[in-house]
Write a structure and sequence with these properties.
The protein is of the alpha/beta class. Helices cover 39% and strands 25% of the residues.
Length: 314
């Protein structure tokens, strides 16, 4: 299946499940292909034929956008060097979940969540660690007895009770012995923010431009990004803007289209900040503001009001 077909399949599954889905944003150099939202669930999705092409740089860009938009980064794929991605299994790279379209469809359309995740060493399942520990203690089952039943060490049982994933065979033996369902489904839409906080992050160099410095001086938090149609994600406590600090007029329209799709899904205003005054104040609902206009702004609310007057929430 070609990549464009994969992207459209992902979009179709999300739309059928009730998500508001962006158009395909498969632009060269961009870190995502689809953005979707349903209620409070926002997904930033990269679609790959071969997930081995998913780089750490791309993952970092997706995480930066996800944090700024309070979204979950997700990859859908077809295969890896090891073979086709199997249905019902959640894979991961760089702390981002990866699923096949079949797994995505089962989860969203059939209410059949995956129960298995791939990790170094094989396939694992997630256990209800609190239930496991409480049942074992309530029934006065020793660590040694449960360890012998599962075919693992006492230390491993303790680690299961602390939240560590279990090999499938061991988990099934524990379930059978206890007579209780302790294997939990995997939610690929859960962004592991606690693990993210422990990661050694790749910090992009600040954008060296007047617009960047002016936005910072106005009190906006500006996060530099690379593999997206923007050079920065800009926001303060009241407004989030997807900001391009571009000077290439030929790319303004293309960037505005992507910005408008994102702002529509997020129900936010978007703005492109360009070096020279453009012949249009807005493109596809995205406001266009020049450096000269930005230079005259002294308070953050002045910028947000200007953006609101020129752009629209689609």
């Amino acid at each position: 299946m070609g990549r464009n077909e994969l992207i459209n399949t992902t979009r179709a599954i999300l739309a059928k499940a009730g998500f508001d889905v962006s158009s395909a944003l498969s632009i060269r150099g961009i870190c995502f292909d689809v953005v979707a939202r349903m209620d409070d669930t926002v997904l930033i999705i990269k679609v790959l034929s071969n997930i081995d092409a998913f780089s750490k740089e791309n993952a970092e860009e997706m995480k930066t956008l996800a944090e700024a938009l309070d979204a979950t980064p997700l990859v859908t794929g077809e295969r890896s060097s090891s073979g086709a991605l199997e249905a019902g299994i959640v894979y991961s790279r760089f702390n981002i979940s990866i699923v096949s379209n079949e797994t995505l469809a089962d989860l969203l359309l059939e209410d059949a969540p995956p129960f298995i995740f791939a990790a170094p060493g094989g396939l694992y399942v997630k256990l209800d660690s609190e239930l496991l520990k409480s049942v074992r203690e309530d029934r006065s089952i020793s660590l040694g007895t449960l360890a012998e039943t599962a075919g693992v060490s006492r230390r491993t049982i303790q680690m299961y009770e602390s939240g560590m994933g279990a090999m499938i065979d061991a988990a099934l033996r524990i379930e059978e012995y206890l007579g209780l369902p302790i294997i939990e489904p995997i939610d690929p839409f859960t962004f592991k923010r606690e693990e993210r906080s422990k990661e050694e992050r790749v910090h992009n160099d600040p954008v060296d431009s007047f617009a960047y410095n002016q936005l910072v001086n106005l009190g906006f938090s500006v996060r530099p990004v690379v593999k997206s149609p923007f050079e920065a994600v800009t926001h303060n406590s009241n407004t989030l803007m997807l900001t391009s600090l571009g000077s290439d007029d030929e790319k303004v329209v293309q960037r505005a289209i992507v910005a408008s799709e994102l702002s529509r899904i997020m129900d936010r205003f978007s703005v492109l900040i360009v070096e020279r005054k453009h012949d249009r104040d807005s493109i596809n609902s995205t406001a266009v503001v020049s450096n000269d206009e930005l230079k005259k702004i002294d308070e953050p609310h002045e910028l947000t009001e200007l953006v609101a007057s020129r752009g629209t929430k689609r």
